[in-house]
């Protein structure tokens, strides 16, 4: 069986995620590509800080060791900063390697150069991971673009900023307290400037502009503003009117050229970005034929980003992934407990032990926790009761008739 | 310049949308594919009911006229029902044509057969338009599947049902009144059974199952329930607890096989499907590596569906659509009026005539309508005022200090 030989630049959060994902997906690569994927070497800055789980993978701090590997098909870039990333990837392309990158700052600066260099050398560039982590924004835009003109793109592209704004509103805390919480949770770096002053979202917006309009606006003319000046007082005032602050990157083509801004805006509940909370990212696309499409998901993190990178790797080789036919990954071994509402004449209903009553919503509705099987058994026995599954988290605070006076917070499936 | 020769089956809403979209996208086809796309013939049931805008396109009610066209590369299926769609497309594949279909009932029954027949004959099958209209669900699932196992898929796949449930809750009307409204607006057919009893969502779920798990569950074992039994009383009761009824198709792989249901469920605000309202469709995907991704957009309609079909057509020929470089489609010729909030010491602020005041939120915040240019001019002149753009619809009902006592409903950009 033939092998795809990989070099990985960087072994931080994203690098480790890619390493592990490639390791655990060998069966999948064989099934889809008919090939093995082997990481040959990993480049790090400081050799003493890192150790690889596999002794046959080279760990090096010299790019020369990477570029002179006897076998090398794909270079994956999981480092940050404009340089040396750009120089490394240029050399890789010139050697005839495909490249895949998650490095937004570098790609915002040099994406166009890398793409044309790659075209010249007949290799591919994957950069889905540079924008909105695990959400397939680049691919979706490309698909829409084949038929549609894209009128506008609005995106929440920085998870840390969105987390801070959400926490300020929900917990009534200050910007600095929310920032500390984001740092505790590992969302924000020790130096949060890149996130909260809008640089990260700006780079991503520039990459989107390149994808959507084939060029970037003049960087000097882009209004770039972070969220550090937003006060709790402002958030609370606008909350009363149903408005939320979101940090939004906007792209639009006008008669004057590409108009782009990256700034806090107020969003009402009718807008697709209103409900995007915590570290989630989202992109709302206005296309002329299809209308508005919005995508939401994890914008960063070890595995979402790794997933985007490995998806790009597979796409280099094949355009059609096969369905998930393996029998080895049923999503749970035991039937889970789900949340249900029993509706109807529930007053004198005999509830078997396998069904746990969480609360009585009113005389006609009962909230229960049970396996699907138990609910089916019950449904077959009783008439006049309708059963509804409940999706999403739900805190039942009880009614005056509630059997359980304390609040129950449960999670639907 | 070479030409792609097309036959179109059906000239209803979707068929007309495809016809027009192909007509208006000739420049785009030339730019992306280096080819012209020409509709050679259109198949209809009743010749007297239809007239084509172009005299050189054949209008016929005999499929033999289609399949015996001297030049034929792609057959696009925009008719409904299992037959004769399946038989027509099989013949097209055997002739060596690519096929693209929007026919969910047919594809739920015969998708697998058509796909393997197409593989045998070395042609492609596009079916993005069968599920969730303009939302690229099939492509996104395929991309995720290359790396992820899909644990669960929950989807709002029938726009008519979602519209009815939304209207009942919002307007407090009965099922039959909401259905009449859906029929007035052209969302629901004269015979709404297919939509409101869950058949339409069921077919789409079967197609998704085929994509995700490579097979379908036993149709007899799928719980299929529509929304016709949901009463206003139920909707109002659960609304009080923050729960909404949504008609949801669910797919999940368990140790016992593929578990699928199509039924009304209760959804809380933490779930991605809660905010999907009116005729919108959405799909929420739980993948093992990337986490939860959700997509939302128009699930049906003339142009969204046509867009999905024409995107498939382009994808047959090229995997990479180019960016939107043309200068001929700036999204507006004149700068639009946008909504803004001026925040700070607005009390004695001189507002130029180009900025229209909508209302005073409080002593520190003013709601205005203006072109971006006017706002920039103002910002350059004044200190201590922060300007936030407002996205989404917003009804300003005024405060006790409001200058305008009547409610203003405005639309942000």
From TrEMBL, chains A, B:
Cross-referenced InterPro entries: Asp/hSer_DH_NAD-bd, HDH_cat, HDH_CS, NAD(P)-bd_dom_sf
EC number(s) on file: 1.1.1.3
Coiled coil: none
Keyword terms, alphabetized: Amino-acid biosynthesis, Methionine biosynthesis, NADP, Oxidoreductase, Sodium, Threonine biosynthesis
Amino-acid biosynthesis is among the record's keywords: yes
Residues annotated as domain Aspartate/homoserine dehydrogenase NAD-binding: 10-127
Catalysed reaction, written as an equation: L-homoserine + NADP(+) = L-aspartate 4-semialdehyde + NADPH + H(+)
Alphabetized SUPFAM superfamilies for the sequence: Glyceraldehyde-3-phosphate dehydrogenase-like, C-terminal domain, NAD(P)-binding Rossmann-fold domains
GO MF term (any one): NADP binding
Pathway: Amino-acid biosynthesis; L-threonine biosynthesis; L-threonine from L-aspartate: step 3/5; Amino-acid biosynthesis; L-methionine biosynthesis via de novo pathway; L-homoserine from L-aspartate: step 3/3
Transmembrane segments: none
Domain Homoserine dehydrogenase catalytic: 136-314
One Gene Ontology biological process: threonine biosynthetic process
Keyword NADP applies: yes
Similarity-based family: Belongs to the homoserine dehydrogenase family.
NCBIfam families referenced in this protein's UniProt entry, alphabetically: PRK06349.1 (NF004976)
Protein name in UniProt: Homoserine dehydrogenase
